[in-house]
Design goal:
Two copies of one chain form a homodimer.
Chain A (H helix, E strand, L loop, with lengths): L15 E2 L2 H8 L4 E8 L2 E8 L1 E3 L2 E7 L3 H7 L3 E14 L7 E15 L3 H15 L3 H4 L5 H5 L1 E7 L2 E7 L17 E9 L3 E2 L37
Antiparallel strand pairs in A: 1-9, 2-3, 2-6, 4-5, 5-8, 6-7, 6-10, 7-8, 7-9
């Protein structure tokens, strides 16, 4: 990953990385991005789903959405993805922190207009969220594809930040008898709620949620397996 | 909540609200915000913790942080908070969706410099995350307060969006025998991990995590109890 004025790490660079493998593994451990852009002199931040294919992020939405229209015009954008791994309880208020993995990427989104590439991108987003779901459902028809805007965003200028591990307290504070440690946090699925109008003979499938990777909760800045997905 | 050009709802206004009670209840059900701003011609989106006191959001960070420096200068900002409640599996790819509650707020952040107000704001952020923790730990000293920038952000121009409930499919697709429904998602704490250097005689407290409100997972656009916290 090239380091530019935009993705250079200012604060606590020891927590940061420009390695594509690290950046990709964090993006694969989440599914919600917050996309920032400036329009009419005002910054906007909009939450949206995404998928990753190699070094490209795909975003989608209604052709009527403000975000898709603005971004599709080729303006500068910033995509932030944050995985919260835990609350870090220190012995002083000041040293409380959060364990997290985050990616911030800068660049310009481009609309995808060719039918085949559009369908591919939508499938990547679907597979990112729920593996195998795409093959089970009705594919988008022409009208639906026309109503869906799809953007691609190259991960050329991005950086990752990771905080993990126990609290770091002031030497003097370790004598205090206040509890300190980490409360891990995990996004968990609950039992699925079937739609009331399921057709007779419908069975509940067991889908894998690829972003829900337990081992990803203890990442390193130099992962070995994180490169396994197309890098 | 006043409705302006910025917080007017464009897309699917039936999912949206400008009610302060709705906006506050969503902000109280999360602890991570994504803050957007423009600096040097480039949009930035940075994840950060926050607390809410009435109609004010508090943000904090190191005085050295880029975000705090830029925002403290009085530039326009956008604060987005998103709670993911579930994945919505429809019978067609097109109608897949997400159940969520989100707030987008526009405005200008102002630095808090008075000592007492700064400590109050930090306590609000702490209480928002882990009730009672503030009273158990060492309070910030003068040096730590000097190193911490605290901003206040008035919730004057904000909007909420909520999607809840089952998938909505095309009439023809209900005959399909593909499973449809909702996979609820919840941010869950796991067993706390004690720091290795706890002082003898330290016991693990049972803190309430106020944002982890189970009843909040089934919100309505017209909540009755959501107004109970100072509105």
């Amino acid at each position: 990953m090239k380091v530019t004025q935009r993705n250079r790490l200012h604060r606590l660079p020891a927590r940061g990385s420009h390695e594509s493998g690290v950046i990709h593994s964090i993006l694969d451990a989440a599914f919600l991005a917050h996309v920032g852009f400036q329009a009419h002199g005002q910054p906007f931040v909009i939450p949206t789903l995404y998928g990753r294919d190699g070094n490209t992020l795909y975003l989608h939405g209604s052709v009527a959405s403000r975000m898709l229209k603005e971004l599709g015009g080729g303006i500068q954008a910033c995509v932030a993805v944050t995985v919260v791994d835990g609350l870090v309880l220190a012995r002083s208020a000041f040293h409380h922190s959060m364990n997290y993995r985050s990616v911030v990427a800068f660049g310009t989104a481009r609309p995808i207009t060719e039918r085949d590439r559009k369908v591919h991108a939508l499938r990547v987003i679907s597979d990112h969220l729920i593996a195998g779901r795409w093959d089970d459902v009705r594919a988008p028809n022409d009208k639906e594809l026309k109503g869906t805007a799809v953007l691609e965003f190259a991960l050329d200028e991005a950086s990752a930040k990771i905080r993990s591990g126990p609290p770091k307290d002031e030497p003097k504070d370790y004598a205090r008898t206040v509890w300190a440690g980490v409360i891990p946090l995990v996004m968990e699925p609950r039992s699925a709620i079937p739609d009331e109008r399921l057709a007779d003979g419908t069975h509940e499938p067991q889908y894998e949620l690829p972003w829900r990777n337990e081992s990803a909760a203890t990442p390193s800045l130099m992962p070995s397996s994180a490169e396994s997905k197309s890098a």
